[in-house]
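Working notes for the structural subgroup meeting. M.R. asked for a predicted model of this chain before we commit to crystallization trials. I am recording the input and output together here so anyone reviewing the notebook later can reproduce the run.

Input as submitted:
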Amino acid sequence: MARMRVIVNPAAGAGKTGKKWPQIMVLLKSLGIDFEHDITEAPGHAMELAKSAVGKGYELVVSVGGDGTIHEIANGLYEAGGSADVAVGIVNTGTGADYIRTIGVPRGYKEACQCLLSPGRRTVDLGVVEYTKDGKPMKRLFVNFAGIGFDAEVVRATTEKFKALGDMPSYLMGLFSTLMSYENRDVSIVVDGEHGERRVCTVLLNNGRYAGGGMMPAPNADPGDGFFDVVIIDNITKPDLIVSIPRIYRGTHLTHPKVTLMRAREVEIRPKLTSAVQADGELLGETPVSFSVLPAALKVII
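Returned structure, recorded in token form:
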């Protein structure tokens, strides 16, 4: 079996991963899987550990954590030049489990551990987001989705105001507070070279189908087709947005007259007022921002 490095984020799933890891470790050994592991100590550490794994010649890197852990590992592999050669395994112990719903990895950790024995690989795209932080240009990759507008402001509120409450309570509080204060944004947007001006509630760039803990903003997205499914919610009223949120969970919102779906490889957004940028539910920085697809950039064990 290929050399395997397991990266464990004990803080994922509101700290539940740290409690589950001893059971997962015993299960992996009982399956005859030979591996070494690292425990993350702070945000960003999984990225550094993934880079180190590439440098040490590991051929499989396994994420034990949530979507944020997968996000960091993918960035670390790419920065080390290993994203096309090192396969990624996923044992989800986070709350949202959005990415694996699209990829096809089992949600239960016992079944996910069994998958690590599979020879199956799914080649998927990554997204590239170029943004600004503290006045400096920055670049990050994402596996599942990214965006600006309402969704990014929810992430900002969740991260900056309510994170101590735990995953789901902090998200709900972030959602509620953003609903109270958010105003739609006037943006200049370029989609594969075509320029437009519009007033938007949110713009989402989707590799996967799910986001936000089970919402389905892009029900037909294919993470290996070389395109984003770009979902734009235009100048919707707050009452209409609140009523429409259940439709986003069901994936039936695309018929709403204020919702536009496009498929694109490159998108650039310049709001008139500076706006937050998120990727895979992580607050990155601010606009202006551009997004591009990195085709067939990652291999996932399925």
